[in-house]
Amino acid sequence: MKNNFNIAIVGLGQIGNYLYNEIKIKSKEIENKTGKKIKIVAVSAKNKNKKRKFKIDNKIFYSDPLKIFDEKKIDILFECVGLSDGISKKIIETALRNKVHVITPNKALIAKHGDHLALLAEKNNVNLEFEASVAGGIPILRSIKEGLVTNKLNKVYGILNGTTNYILSEMEKSGDTFDKVLKKAQLLGYAEPNNPKLDLNGFDAFAKVRILSALAFNNLISKNKCIMEGIENINIKDIKIANQLNLRIKLLGISEIINGKLFETVHPCLVNKNTYIGNVNGVMNAVITHGKPVGETILQGEGAGPGPTSSSLLSDLLSILRGNIKFPFGISNSKRKKVKILNNNDYTNSLYLRFEVKDKPGVLSSITNRLAKFKISVKRLIQTPDKKNNKATIVIITHKTTEINFRNCLSIFKRNKNILKFPTLIRLYN
After folding, report:
1. Which of these, 93, 100, 91, 88, lies nearest to 125 by C-alpha position?
2. CB distance 338 to 223 below 8 Å
3. Are 57 and 24 a contacting pair, CB within 8 Å?
4. Which tens digit of pLDDT belongs to each residue from 222-235?
5. pTM for the full model?
6. How far apart are alpha carbons 186 and 364 in whole angstroms?
7. What pLDDT, on the 0 to 100 scale, is given for residue 52?
8. Is residue 218 scored above 80 in pLDDT?
9. What is the CA radius of gyration of the chain?
10. What angle, 0 to 180 degrees and rounded to 10, lies between the N-to-C axes of helices 162-174 and 178-187?
11. 424 secondary structure, DSSP code
């Protein structure tokens, strides 16, 4: 096996910039641990003159990343552009076809094109590594592919987005509104300054769920329409009420096999404060797996930022340098299967429902009667009057019901003049 490896880094944003410095600083340490020498021979970015912590040598800079393959002998390529299509996909495809190992933190691309790219890597006998695409510095993908490889997993879930976890934790801690805490998260660098939408609406976490599913259950990446809800509508009022009930709101990504069918979802959940997941706060991520014979395993750590991400990228690098040529999703693409999908309508949960209503006789009974009509039974009820404004807040915790049941039930409340706005709904974690 060769002893010298040429490296290219495409994309010198926050992640690529940090990675470049880490490789420069740790090249000797990497050599000591692997017996292999590494050298950065090419970098690419939109703007060569952008202010960075290092000076770019003109001899290794490419404004067009695809030209790298024509002019340099590359062994390992880091893709840090971050797009789900376009140049990111083209770069990776070109690298794999040229028998170049690829390492990427690009969860959107892997969730969308992972099957195609994995097949390409397998055909060319090179690695496609994406440990950094899920949960930052937490080695969850390697744990599933290697540490838990002989276990039959049936569930993987957790807090997969540090931005949303920070916002929810800070709202509870400070009592500030969603908008105020979001601005704070942006100032601290926890949320994108211009467009944090993909974090807040659940898309980021959902891409990670799809990757986890494919690894945990040996299936092709699912394309089905799933329940995906973010935290944009979480109100400080709900956080305060949850606190009174010894509950806490967390955005959870969940993937599990239910009656032989795959179910994937991302949505806010009310979790008990006494549980492990209920105490993962701030920017922390946590991923929990269930399987046989291992039972439950838990991995926790910082899920975002250049430091944790770079840690996983370098972990992939060392794996390649040590000669670990392996299937991207743990098994050959030909053996990965297309699984049956659980109908979203059949998903069952207990519900938290908050109604803002006119404080007058008969309003509560009209709500409970409506719930009863759809066989949704009340487990707990809290009514708080606001006599000054002639209003009341009604909070109902239900027993378990199906997704289709409660959606059909709630639709009628839009037309009830005594209900001041459509009820807030948060599922309880089963």
Report:
1. 100
2. no
3. no
4. 988 889 999 999 99
5. 0.94
6. 41
7. 83
8. yes
9. 24
10. 120
11. E
* Residue located via tokens 């969603």: 178
Query: What is the secondary structure of 13-75 as a DSSP string?
Result: SHHHHHHHHHHHHHHHHHHHHHS-EEEEEEEE-S-TTS--SSPPPTTTEESSGGGHHHHS--S
- 150-302 matches 345-428 in fold: no
How many C-beta atoms surround the C-beta of residue 259 within 10 A?
A: 8
What's the order of all strands across the beta sheet hosting 101-103? Answer: 61-62, 37-44, 4-10, 76-79, 101-103, 128-129
Beta bridge partners of 383: 394
Give 46-77 pLDDT, tens digit per residue. 888 888 878 888 899 999 999 999 999 999 99
Which residues are known catalytic residues? 208
pLDDT in tens, 327-384: 999 999 999 999 899 999 999 999 999 999 999 999 999 999 999 999 999 999 999 9
What does the pLDDT look like over 238-259, one tens digit per residue? 999 999 999 999 999 999 999 9
- For residue 324, the model assigns a pLDDT of 86
pLDDT on residue 304: 75
The tokens describing 401, both together, are 């019901």
Which of the following CATH numbers is that of domain 150-302: 3.30.530.20, 3.40.190.10, 2.40.37.10, 3.30.360.10? 3.30.360.10
Gap between the Cα atoms of 368 and 376, Å rounded: 9
The pair of structure tokens assigned to 347 is: 């998903």
What the block records as the tokens of 302 is 């910082």
Is-cis flag, bond preceding 293, omega within 30? yes
Give the single-character DSSP code of 233.
T
User: Are 284 and 300 contacting, i.e. CB atoms less than 8 angstroms apart?
Assistant: yes
The torsion angles phi and psi of 362, rounded to 5 degrees, stand at: 95, -15
As to burial, measured by CB atoms within 10 angstroms (0-12 exposed, 13-18 middle, 19+ buried), residue 411 is exposed
All structural domains of the chain with their residue ranges: 150-302, 345-428
Cβ atoms 8, 78 nearer than 8 A: yes
- Judged by DSSP in three states, 241 sits in helix
Tokens 């690098």 belong to which residue? 317
CATH code for the part of the protein at 345-428? 3.30.70.260
Q: How far apart are CA 382 and CA 310, in angstroms?
A: 47
